Amino acid sequence: MKPVEVRRRRPTPSTFEQRKAARAYPKRVVHAGDTPEPTPTQQRLAKWWQGVVEAKEAEGWSRSRISEKSGLSRKDLYRWLNPAEAPKNPKVETLQRICDGLGLQYADVSEALGWTNPVSMGDLEGKIKRARLILKSKSLSDQEREKFRAMLAGYERAYEGMLDQLIEEFERDIDPTRE
Fold first, then answer.
1. Beta-carbon neighbour count of residue 80 at 10 Å?
2. What is the DSSP letter of 3?
3. What is the dihedral of CA 31, 36, 37, 43, to 10 degrees?
């Protein structure tokens, strides 16, 4: 005959132990209306994005088309419209992709977000050189090579845009009557 295993229940903690555990691990309850205030960047991004969406809708674009061309999911498109849910620190690459897809100027986004000069020309020159060196590597897969080609193209477009902007500023400084 086999011995019968007797399982003992773990003793329930005393009230004192329960309270001690509750103090050590407080429950984080979020009540309706307890959402944090959006940051200034979130507010500016949402305001800019609302203007973009309204302008594209006025041109006859659907939100699905805006989502597709911008590279954002429909869920993200709607999240970006709400200042509390917009990204706190949007990535430059994401904003550049959105601008490229929708035919917008990146300078407008950076100005709307209060980024007067988010990337210096020296930074872009360094990134362009680095991307070109990486592309020369023979150990890259085809997928990685395409990724770096796209990055290089984005950096070069941003660099050209900065050059164009500098030339325009220079021409305005030389001839202030010119508009």
1. 23
2. P
3. -120
What fold characterizes domain 40-112? 434 Repressor (Amino-terminal Domain) (1.10.260)
Relative orientation angle of helices 92-102 and 63-70, to the nearest 10 degrees: 120
Nearest-CA neighbor of 104 among 144, 48, 60? 48
Mean pLDDT to the nearest integer, 56-73: 93
In 1-120, alpha helices (H): 15-24, 40-58, 63-70, 74-81, 92-102, 106-112
Q: Please give the structure tokens belonging to residue 121.
A: 């020309």
What span, in angstroms and rounded, lies between the C-alpha atoms of 60 and 69?
14
pLDDT digits (tens, 9 = 90+) for 83-107: 988 888 888 888 888 988 998 888 7
- From the CB of residue 2, how many other CB atoms can be counted at a distance below 10 Å? 4
Q: What is the value of pTM for the model shown?
A: 0.49
Per-residue pLDDT, 179? 55
Distance CA 4, CA 85 (A): 58
